[in-house]
TrEMBL record:
Annotated Low complexity bias: 202-215, 228-237
InterPro entries in UniProt: DUF1457
Protein name per its UniProtKB record: PAS domain protein
Source species, domain of life: Bacteria
UniProt-annotated stretches for the region Disordered: 202-242
Record organism: Antarctobacter heliothermus
Amino acid sequence: MANAPYQAATDDGSFGMLGKGGKDKGIVSMTERERMRRMAPLRQVEAYWHGLCAADEVPMRSQIDPRGMEDALENAFLMERIAPSMAKIRVAGTHLNDIMGMQIAGMPLSCLIAPPDRERFGEAVKRLFADPAIVRLDLAAEGGFGKPDLEAHMILLPLRSDFGDQTRALGALISHGRIGRTPRRFTLRHIEVTAALSGTVVTPAPTQPATTDAPVMRKEPTADGPRTAAPTSASASGDVKSHLRLVISND
């Protein structure tokens, strides 16, 4: 069939159908398709969180059911505020552990961030709980011997405890590139803070670097929720300042 369309590649790695005369018909960028595929876990976790939101309240920690975001569990994590600008990971997906080269449940979330950027990261965490707000971060891993280029994206979503206070959060992290030698820590390239219930951007996106590594999550029943990932033990570490007080909660 002389006039039948045929598939052809383009210079930018796209492909599509070319019709009579070689005109493009529905060219699809493979780079964009790949990006959408990589970002899927973040979109799934955020969509699940929005589905639990009430008109004027963020969801409760006890509402979180891993079955609602099953395809994103390896990238997801749950955390608890232990100071105004600091939170510890309570349950973490396997991808976060792979990035850090260890099980990081029980460690501060800031262990994923390079020391020079931890203060800025702490300000974003403070807004997450206080406003409450949704925090989106673009990250780049610190380089070095055996540490190839690695970029990552993180989202943090506020939750309420069973007592109604905003001291819990749901998050997800994805990365693109080889992990290489661990641990990998990230610099902050961009931060966006959005009002959790109104969707208004309240903080412009900054640009800077920071280094960090990731947590892990397994689907097992726990006492404080329907079904959620069971935290794996890990030695507590991080940059907790002396004036901060660890708050232990059984919820």
